[in-house]
Design a protein that fits this description.
The structure is a single chain. The N and C termini lie close together (12 Å). By secondary structure, the chain is an all-alpha fold. The longest helix has 21 residues. Helix 2 packs across helix 3. It is built from 4 helices and no strands.
Length: 90
Amino acid sequence: MNIKAFFPKYKVWSRAQGDIARIVEIWKECLATYGGPYLFGAHPCMADAMYAPVCTRFVTYDVALDGKTAAYRDTIMSWAPMKRWVEDAK
């Protein structure tokens, strides 16, 4: 993962698009079931920590997300442990 990189309008290759779609499906299901803002409700858990690197890649490669999944990505990116991790990486 490259915290410093940003590739606006990056063209996602077809095989990666399938992976992105599956991740988005999982996120939408969890957010709808548990109400967010984290995957399993009001508090972050290990699942959110597991998806933190995915969120950084979605930012790096400017992956288009809908409102709810973009909000989840932003929630993770603004989560205090994530902010420290990004700061340390830079």
